[in-house]
Amino acid sequence: MGRLQKNVTENKKENYFLVGKSVLPQALKKTIKVKELLQGSSNYNISQAVRDVGMSRSAYYKYKIIFSLFIK
């Protein structure tokens, strides 16, 4: 996956896609898992969550803006 860029123009609408988890790269799956851990427990901080999932903090920060989790 290349460099991620976000359109910040007010006149353009962003497109969203609903995809199955099985088609996502491993880094994105791990990012989702970290976000789930952070939302599900106040005992976790980012350093602990990325360590438990097996990803680097820099990778987490790179991809975290992509996802909004709707966990209830």
Q: What's this entry about, in short?
A:
The protein is built from 3 helices and no strands. By secondary structure, it is mostly helical. The longest helix has 15 residues, at 26-40.
Report mean pLDDT, rounded to a whole number: 80
Classify the helix fraction into a percent range: 40-55%
Shape: globular
Order of helices and strands: HHH
How much of the residues is beta strand, in percent? Answer: under 5%
Biggest pleated-sheet summary: none
- Counting DSSP E segments of at least 2 residues, the number of strands comes to 0
- Uncertain segments are 1-9
Question: Between the first and last Cα atoms, what is the distance in angstroms?
Answer: 30 Å
Count of alpha and pi helical runs: 3
Radius of gyration: 14 Å
Structural class: mainly alpha
Describe the protein's architecture and organization.
- This protein is an all-alpha fold.
- The protein has a domain at 22-66.
- The protein has helices at 26-40, 46-53, 57-63.
- Helix 1 crosses helix 2 (46-53).
List keywords for this structure.
mainly alpha; 72 residues; globular; 3 helices
Summarize the SSE layout with pairings.
Elements: H1 26-40, H2 46-53, H3 57-63
